[in-house]
Structure formats: structure tokens, C-alpha cells
Amino acid sequence: MKATFLFNQATIIFAALLAIAGIGPAAWADDDDGDSAVLSFSTVGDSRQDPVTADPTTLPLSGQDALWLQNTKALTRILRSIEKGKSHLLLFNGDMIMGYGNAAVPANNTSVVGIVKSDLVQFYTQYAFWRGSVSSLMENGTYVVPVPGNHETQWKAAGKKAQAVNEDAWRANMGDLIMDNSRFRNLFGEEPGNANVGDNRAYDNLSTDQSKLSYSFDFHGSHFTIINTDPVGKDAHAPVNWLAADLQAARDRGLSHSFVFGHKPAFTYYYGVTITSTATNFLPATPSGLDNDLASRDLFWNVIEQYGATYFCGHEHIFNITRHGKAWQVLVGSGGSPFEASPTDVTLNPQTDRTYAWATVNVYKSGKVRLTAFGFDEDFGTTRVLLSTILN
Hints:
Structural class: alpha+beta
Strand content: 25-35%
Largest sheet: 8 strands, mixed
Mean pLDDT: 91
Number of domains: 1
Radius of gyration: 20 Å
């Protein structure tokens, strides 16, 4: 069963009135019919820029974005909104850098120019720029939790295949966030619980070290699992066996909410149509995520359903929330990368298919879980509520 949600007009009007009064998103979501929130987190992905196929609304690219390959304007606005909303966590669902190279040490070209232009240095400088962009969150109450994407792990010239050196570059640039107990204590007065960041490759017969690529932790009574959807040798596949064991362990500890974050969607959002005299074609033309291998995808989704988890993802540069069977997929690959839908495409949800969007989830004392999605259009108009719904 698949249900696509449209605008909740009453919620939009209510949020607009609160905005006029100067009340931010978290201020009204923090108290839901008298039910106080015990945890708030936000999630988005895909902020990297692409100078070759940039969205036409971002042209001409600034010198900064053309160099550092980031949609700085969109990302900065999203981060400011999340900071104002005072989320405990921001889980960023991959493709924070353009990457897509081979982060090996340059073997033959040892000139200064050759080294600086190497994929290795490009990876590191792009990571550094993104880390600088999110650093204010970490200083103002929101812990940033990174999720690896295909642009971080894969080498495009090798046929979009994950590389061990790229996984190493991920750990070198993101490893201090996974998990920094001291910073957690400084922010929240407590450490993340039951952090599981070690090498879990054996569960799914993977060939490379998966430490700090697929990992998990507990926080404020909920369980968070991050999965690498493009490990070496198993691109576009989730680590299903490790995930099942991880969620079972969380259940055994008595945690009632599990949230899973990966880069690639389990269910491609076919956002558009082209109609000819002979056929109706859907966009994208091929699956975008884990559904390139339906049998494997179904095993993954069975685990998500079995443990009552919610799956958050990116990869498609678009916003879409759907329910499949008993579980939700929250697609928020809308953090600044070139939109999937072009300005001339006919799409299923024209109000939101070209919207920079993110989701904020509040877990309440009663156990209720509310998701509220926020966004602004390609012209950087007023931020509005796109959707508000109860997940459980």
C-alpha cells in the first residue's frame, strides 16, 4: 500500500499565524496538545552542487559554490532554520560533498598542482567546507550525525563503484562525529547510549571495514541506526543482517522507537510523467535506489516493518513521504543538490517537487511521534509547513 500525502491546509495556516507572531517551528511542535516532547531531531540530505548539471535556478554559480561544490545558499538557510528550531540532532543523509572520485594517494603526479587537483585533496577540501558550514549547529545545541552517501563512497569513473580508499576518507573526515562522547556531554549532559560503531562487515559478508559507516546509538529513549547503502562490492544494498541484529538488540533493551537513516531510498519516487501518443513514461526512467535489486530491497523492508522502524533517506533530490505496508519512507534528498524535476517537468506533486525541504521529528512523553516537514521553493520564498503527520 502506498499513500502520498498532500498539503495539510489547516496546519499551514496555523504555522503561518505562528510565524507572524515570531514563533518558530519547534516552539509549537514542542507541545502537542499538552504532550511535551522528550526528543526532537531533524533530517535532510544532498547539499552538494554540480557545476556540470546545476539546477538552472542556481545559475550562474557563485565563485564559491563553483569551487567548493556546495549549494551554500540553500544549505545555510536550512541549517539556520534547524538551529532556530533547537533540534537535538541533525542526521544528514549523505551526498554532502561532490566526491565521486578515487581518494587514493596520487602515485605518479607529485607536483604541487597535481596533488592539489587530485581526488584525494578534493575530497578533503569539500569535506572541510561542509564541516565548516554545519559547525555552528554543533556550538548551539544540535549534534550533527553524518550518513554516508554514494558521492562519498563511490568512484564514478569506475562505474559508480564504492572504493575502500573512499570509505577511509569518510572515516578520516567524519569519524570524530561518530560518536564524540565529550561533545554529547557538553551539549546534553549525557553520552549517547549503547553506541555501536565498530566493524560489522561479517554480518553481511562485506569485504571492507564498515566501522563508522554503519553504526547506531540510543538517545532519549529512541534508537538511531545509520546504514551505508553503498559498501564496497555491494553497491545499492543495505546491510540487512547487521540491521536486523541491531534493531533486535534495541528491542531487547526495551526501546519503543527505532529510526533508520540511509542514503538511497528503498522505494524510488517516480515523480514525473511524459505522455506521448503511444506511451506514458515515468520519471525517473529506472529505479534510483535499493529497488534496483527488488529481492534484496524486500528483505530490507521486511526488517524495517518487523521492528516498526521509520526509514529516512535521500539520493533523489526531491521531497516525498510515503507509507509502504506498515512502515514509512521519508525522502528528504532536498538539501540543495540540483532538483530531480526540471522546471518544465509535469510532476505528481508540483507544490513540493521543486522545494528545498527537511523534516523534523518530535517524540513525545506519551510515545507519540510527529513528523513535520518544512521547506521553501526554488525562488527562496517564505518557509512553510509542507506536511505534519503522526508516524505511529
